[in-house]
Design brief:
203 residues; 13 strands; Fumarylacetoacetate hydrolase, domain 2; alpha+beta; four-stranded antiparallel beta sheet
């Protein structure tokens, strides 16, 4: 399986990081070793002093596909989830300054939180879903999929031009504004609509 991540898919997040608005989706990958094991805490790596949380809606691919047309994309997934793309922001900034790839800042062990999965039929409109992240019982990120620059089916169409999608692959669809630093003993919870899909402790 592979984790396919989309960057800069919410305008306000682009603005908060002072990035340029892309003309196409920004795509990067995480290996399966980046997945945080269930019921395990997230350990801040020793190579970063500024790891940020980025809550994202997730899509799990359920069939093999290549060059998928947007109008058929809905057939390639039946579950929706929520997760975190942990980012070593200080390391990422150094890599970007040198024009180098981001993997060390985005794809390290434990950098991908994957919460519970829900049938997509539970949601009346996948392009109008509320989601949020709480840190120590305070809401720090809020988003709605209506604010995506590229919606789920558009992302599947775009990504499948470059990568064959396989059963079990997961797409991280981008994060809204409000990303911020995590520190030891933080308690992080993610909600899709009113459902808590993950809860982790920072170490």
């Amino acid at each position: 399986m592979k984790l396919i991540c989309i960057g800069r898919n919410y305008t306000k997040h682009i603005e908060e990081l002072e990035n340029e608005k892309p003309t196409d989706p920004v795509v990067f990958l995480k290996p399966d070793t980046a997945i945080l094991l269930k019921k395990q805490p997230f350990f801040i790596p020793d190579f970063s002093d500024e790891v940020h949380h980025e809550v994202e809606v997730l899509v799990k691919i359920n069939r093999v596909g290549k060059y998928i047309d947007k109008k058929f994309a809905h057939k390639y997934y039946n579950e929706i989830g929520l997760g975190i793309d942990f980012t070593a922001r200080d390391l990422q900034a150094k890599l970007k300054e040198k024009g180098l790839p981001w993997e060390k800042a985005k794809a390290f062990d434990g950098a991908a939180v994957i919460g519970k999965w829900l049938p997509k039929e539970q949601f009346s409109d996948l392009n109008n879903m509320n989601f949020s992240l709480q840190k120590n019982d305070e809401v720090v990120q809020q988003g709605n999929t209506s604010h995506m620059l590229w919606k789920i089916d558009e992302l599947i169409e775009y990504v499948s031009k470059y990568f064959t999608l396989k059963i079990g692959d997961i797409i991280f669809t981008g994060t809204p504004a409000g990303v911020g630093k995590v520190v030891a003993n933080d308690k992080i919870k993610g909600f899709l609509e009113d459902k808590e899909l993950f809860s982790i402790t920072i170490k």
